[in-house]
Amino acid sequence: MAIKAPAWCEHAVPTANGWEDPVTGEVFKSGGFTPEQIAEFHGVTAPQKEPEVLVEVPVNDFEKEPVQTLTEAPVGGKSLEEMSKIELEALGRTHGIELDRRKSKASLVEEVKEVL
């Protein structure tokens, strides 16, 4: 954002100490400015750096194997009574029912058995 001199001292110039009179060096308004702000006020622009490429990523020309997505985790041979409530809920969702984990484990097992 460009800085502007106060309206009551338009001939002032920005310095590290604040707005000063260019002839006498008297500080009109204290408050420092960065060298970049001072250069911008005087119309001097810093040269823009070209962004440099650090590392180029090598391109693989070989075909990637298709990724196989799993729709459900394997049960692992557990019986319904050995499963936890969370596992029962996940199994129920795969078969289209929504189980309430606030119920007892026995009632969840019964609901799943009804569907299967």
> In which range does the helix fraction lie?
10-25%
Number of strands: 3
What does the radius of gyration come to?
Answer: 36 Å
What structural category arises from helix and sheet content?
alpha+beta
Principal-axis shape: elongated
Q: Between the first and last Cα atoms, what is the distance in angstroms? A: 69 Å
Portion in beta strands: 5-15%
What is the averaged pLDDT score? Answer: 82
Number of helices: 3
Uncertain residue segments: none
Report strand order across the widest sheet: 1-2-3
Order of helices and strands: EEEHHH
Largest sheet: 3 strands, antiparallel
What would your notes on this structure say?
This protein is of the alpha+beta class and 116 residues long. Among the domains are: 7-41, no CATH class; 85-115, no CATH class. It contains three helices and three strands. It has a three-stranded antiparallel beta sheet. A hairpin with a 6-residue loop joins strand 2 and strand 3 (27-30). Helix 2 (85-94) packs parallel to helix 3. The longest helix is centred in the C-terminal third of the chain and has 11 residues, at 105-115.
